[in-house]
Every structure is written in structure tokens, then in C-alpha cells.
Specification:
263 residues; alpha/beta; 14% strand; fatty acid biosynthesis; fatty acid metabolism; lipid biosynthesis; Enoyl-ACP_Rdtase_NADH
Amino acid sequence: MTGQMQGKRGLIMGVANERSIAWGIAKAMAEAGAELAFTYQGEAFGKRLEPLAASVGSDFMVDVDVTNDASLDAAFVQLGARWPTIDFVVHAIAFSDKSELQGRILNTSRANFKNSLDISAYSFIDVARRAHPLMVENGGTLLTLTYMGSTRVTPNYNVMGIAKAALEASVRYLANDLGPEGIRVNAISPGPMKTLAGAAIGGARKTYKHTDMNAPLRSNATLEAVGGTAVYLASDAGAFTTGEILRVDGGFHVLGMPQYEHL
């Protein structure tokens, strides 16, 4: 995919470390020729991000709290001062109180429900609103990350499944809103992956092993596969793909039950 994104530039939000899905996307986009800017939240994540950003030739990093309007405004003012237009934004941000990602959904607290939906779903709309002026001239791509827990009950995913369902609905509505201006909006839905975020889900190892053994391709997705999908969606090759939830899960989503040998 060398050169597929030559001349394009954009923002990556949500890199936690080198195993982050957001990093897999950033690396693939950089290898395809894109210029990148990054956001992070807090000093600790900033220190982890700095060498990664440098490794793909980026010196643009800004601390952002997506629950704070002033913080988001300041970030996009800085981005606009650096680049008058951008071609893509990758939103890889989600959060829920780990203590509530277990037990019964019946016991989800109001506070965690509101916070989870705010950070994991509303923030995508909030980011899109601020990215819009930087894309309206030439069009662009907004990408986010989801998971099949949005449509199928997944043990210990709880309120995050509801948040991802809201996120996926947001993708469709934003795609319709922004399509006339040439702005495409899509989500990538990988299977379980060994990331910092995934480790917060109870029983993550069992879930990872189960999908690895039962997916038609008998494998979970790799960072490289997710990154390649993001490059397709953000490049000219994806010019007429919008409003989609693209699954990169080895085909696991087509199954109605485990493979015969694992029943």
C-alpha cells in the first residue's frame, strides 16, 4: 500500500501503546504515505506516545480530554493552525468503569452509563463537528472503532455494548449528514484483540481463545489487517464507501454456533 495515502494528512486519537489498534492504524497510514498528528490524554500516555509518534515522523501531539469542550476546541484550533485542511480523523476512544464490566447489566449505575456513552459514543459526534470545517473544502474520512458486542450479547461487555450500538448508529447518521460534502464516515469492527482496552474486559483471554479457534479463518485479526482496512477506507480506493461497519474478525460474525469440534 506504499503511496496509497501520499499527500493525505490526518489526526489519530486514542493510541495508548504499541499494541493499540489506533497504533496499528497509524503505522499502516504512515507506511502508505500519510502525515499524522496525534492526541493523547494525560502525561503518562503522552510519554508512551512520544517515541511512537516520532517513529512515523510526527512531532504533533496534543493532550485532549474528550469530555471537556474547551480541551477539544483548543486541540482543533492547534490542528487547524498547523494544517488548514485534513483528510481523515481516526477516533479510537472508549471507556467504562472496569468494575461495571462484569456481573449483570441490570446493575449498571446511572453515572457510569452516562459517562460510558459520553466518552465512547458522543465524543465521535463531538470530534466530527470540530473536524468538519477542516474537511468541508476537499472532503475526508471519519473512522471509529466498534465491536460485535453492539449487536450480540457478549459476556462482561455490558454497558460498552450499548455504547457501541450508539456509536454505530452515529456512524450512519453522520454519514448521511456529511455525505453531500464528500465526507465519508465508517467504523471498523475487529474481533477480540490483545490491547490495553481489551484487557479491561473480564474473561478477555477466554474470549480471545474462543474466537481464535472458531472463526472461519481460525484466527483473530492482526493490527496489520485492521490498519490495512483503515488505509482502504481513508484512501481514494474507499471513495464510495460510507455508513459502513466493516468487520475484520476472521469471519467470526457469520457463525451461529462454535465449530463442530468445539461443541
